[in-house]
Known about the structure:
Blueprint: H1 8-17, H2 22-29, H3 33-42, H4 61-77, E1 96-98, E2 101-106, E3 110-113, H5 114-123, E4 131-135, E5 148-152, H6 153-163
Antiparallel strand pairs: 1-2, 2-3, 4-5
Amino acid sequence: MDRKLDNAKWLRNAYVNEGRSLNSIAKDLDCHANTVRNRLIAFSIARRPNGAHFIGKPKPQEQRQKMAEARRRYWQAHPDRTAFRLKVSRSKRHTGTMNGRPYIYVIGKGYVAVHRITAEIKLGRPLGEDEIVHHIDGDVTNNELENLQVMTNPQHSRLHERLRKRDRKHRFT
């Protein structure tokens, strides 16, 4: 193992003063970045947050142009959705799934299910708290406009009650 890795002064200088990354230091010392990280912790050297080297640096021009072109293509392909727009966050890009349903972050609303956003755009107004979006084919990942139906909670319950399977004695299975 390299002696520089045991030298707190050298490690502090390389990481803090020179602003080098864990990976570049690890590459020079021919070890893993986690080893360097563990040494920083052992020597009580404060670590930078992930992505700190990107903070304050603008995106390259070609990346901004790509993003602008993608937005333009999307809104040209969906002209009916331009009247009612939701502000999807640019800083919180994280999207994911909960209960198998895709979610996206909307400014002012938080994480919202994509099928609810699609229904709001279809209706041209925000959904009420008592309104539910039903997937006609039963596939919660299929958020096509034709597959979504807006209804109230009692209507949705009655619909699913009618769809439940029953045995010969008309009991629910």
